[in-house]
Each structure stands twice: as C-alpha cells, then as structure tokens.
Specification:
The protein is built from 3 helices and 6 strands. With 148 residues, the chain is α+β, with helices and mostly antiparallel strands. It is rod-shaped and about 90 Å long.
C-alpha cells in the first residue's frame, strides 16, 4: 500500500535523530524532504485542478440538458434572440417573455437582453450587457440610414 506524501514527510523528519548533522546523509535527507514538499505542493495543485475540471464538465452537461428548454426566435429586423420554449418550466425563476443573447447562448451563458434607447434611430433595441451586442427589434424602415 502506497503512503501519501504527507506521511513520507513525517517519516523523514523522524530520521533526523539517526543522522549526523552536516554529513552526507543529512544533505540527502534534506534534499529528499525538499522534493517531498514540492511533490506535495504539485499534488495539491493537481487535486484542485481536477476538482475545477469536474465542475466545468458538470456545468457543460447541465447546460446541454437545459438547452432543450430554449428556442431561437427571429425578430422582424432579422436578428436572432433566445427565449424559453412555451410550456417548458425551468428551475430558475424566468419571467415570461424574457429574451437572451444568442451570441452568449452559444458560449453557454444566459445573458438577459435589456431594452435601450438610441437617439435618431426608429424602433426599439435590446442590448446584451455581457458581450455588448445590440438587437434591433423592428424591421428597418426602407430607405432609412442611421447616422452617428
């Protein structure tokens, strides 16, 4: 049965009483302890990284399951948004009619689109405050051009 790094460090500390100070054995034991401490630090980092990766995988799997509750909708302007499918219930408290950024949804993020006003622009707009995308709600008037 393999001992963990912490046990090995404790065992090396007990060997000091059997080794002469300043001798070759003391130098080797000191080096061994240093390597064991470095190994323990790397082991701790790997355990933490492993836990973070497991959480990331779980989040991806959860989003893939929840993706079925959403649908894309094209606005009269031609822009796309993501909405909760009619009749589907979600764990989160979603307001009926809430719309999400299609760009962020592709990145597995739910970002609520917020209404904004634009001067000298007819019709309404929605803005994603995560990626700064703007969605025109109404079809543009024929022959109209926005000047900024």
């Amino acid at each position: 049965m393999a001992a963990n790094v912490g046990d090995l460090i404790r065992r090396t500390q007990g060997l000091w009483e059997f080794i002469e100070d300043g001798g070759e054995g003391a130098k080797r034991l000191s080096e061994l302890q240093r390597e064991l401490v470095e190994t323990q630090i790397r082991e701790t980092a790997l355990v933490e990284e492993n836990a973070a990766l497991k959480k990331t995988i779980a989040d991806f799997e959860k989003f893939d399951i929840e993706r079925q509750y959403y649908t894309r909708q094209q606005k009269p302007s031609g822009a796309w948004v993501v909405k909760v499918r009619p009749g589907k219930e979600l764990e989160a408290d979603m307001e009926k009619g809430m719309e999400f950024c299609a760009h962020c949804f592709q990145k597995r993020e739910l970002s609520i689109l917020q209404p904004i006003e634009k001067l000298r622009s007819p019709g309404g707009y929605l803005k994603c405050h995560t990626c700064s995308a703007e969605v025109m709600l109404d079809a543009p008037l024929r022959g109209s051009v926005d000047f900024y």
